[in-house]
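User: For a reading group we're discussing how well predicted structures match intuition. Take Acyl-CoA dehydrogenase. Before you show the prediction, I'll give you the sequence so everyone sees exactly what went in.
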Amino acid sequence: MNSSGREQSAQGAEPSFDHAPFGQPGCPPAVTELRERVAAFVRERVMPSEPVLDAGGPAARAVLGTLQEEAKNAGLWALPLPVEYGGQGLPLSAYAHLAEAEGASDHGPAALGSAALLDVLMLGRHATEPVRERCLRRLAAGELRSCYAMTEPDTPGTDPARTTTRADPGPDGTWTLNGRKWFITGAGDADLVTVLARTGENLSLVLVPTSAPGFRVVRELPVLGAGGQWEIALEDVTVPADHLVGEPGQALRIAGERLRLGRVLRCLRWLGQAERAFGLMRDRARSRSHTAGPLADRQLVQQLVFDALLAIRTTRPLVYEAVARLEAGADARVETGLAKVAAARMLQQVADAAIQVHGAAGLGPDTALPALFRTGRAARLLDGPDELHVAAVARRVLRG
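Assistant: Thanks. Here is the predicted 3D structure of Acyl-CoA dehydrogenase, as structure tokens, for the group to look at:
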């Protein structure tokens, strides 16, 4: 679920983030230079295009295509994707520093070709050879768009065991799917959807082309008034046998693998968005004056700035600890849960503080703050609500 804002705006100049660079101290020099190039591309090329990109439609697709070509020409395309599919193969420990800068805009990952990372890795590890040959290089090149459909309207998203969408085997080895899914990022423009479905008593993943007869986009679902999420229906959609992703009944294992990395990537991007909100708040406090003097001299404003910076600086180590454990192949469930809850709360706090310092201007269309606040609030539900992660981490710790 992506909470980018579908709103026209005339956003002002974005902060340069010079108060605290993206990423952890000790970032290798080669990665530092690349991070600065990514940050500049997002700030100078992606952010000014956000009003068109947020609005969606043909104009947005054209602008995104232009940005993607520029990223390719600049050598910034598909930095974390595997080399064998056309990416640059950066390991997670290096890409993490870039993901903060890239994620400062909701559209940064799509513009720079990393939005497909989860799908490319999942299909590269678990899809059949024919599917890998047909799809992976095109996904990595941005020629195909994909999405992931798990949640259903009538069942809790945190309880996939209650999935009702079915994939029934046919006599010729095909699979026929029936069901509904919702809150799917990018389904309106996707070419491929990976669907969580019941196969007999178990759960499996099935790759569905959106051009297949019986596939239907039901509606767009605004999130706090902004678009980008979709509901779909599958009505006797038949796909070939080789569209099963992994073995039958292995959906939860594959989904867990995907979700752990996905949550960490979201955390990194939320750090980037919090840095953006913090920069806007800092610049507003410096530049705005009242009869009693600059906002920056007010103790209550200073308290907001301090608390926001403290939240960013204390959250970042949690996120990078999860990154390190994931890359090492260690059990990262506790670290990922801590990072996810901390990063979601942190982004909501920082965006809210930035709006408070801006006053009424922080609620209007002239800054990115409404979209950043919306992302922060939605973050506490994305990939599982806070309560799910709190309970899961506490149980694991208490059991030793």
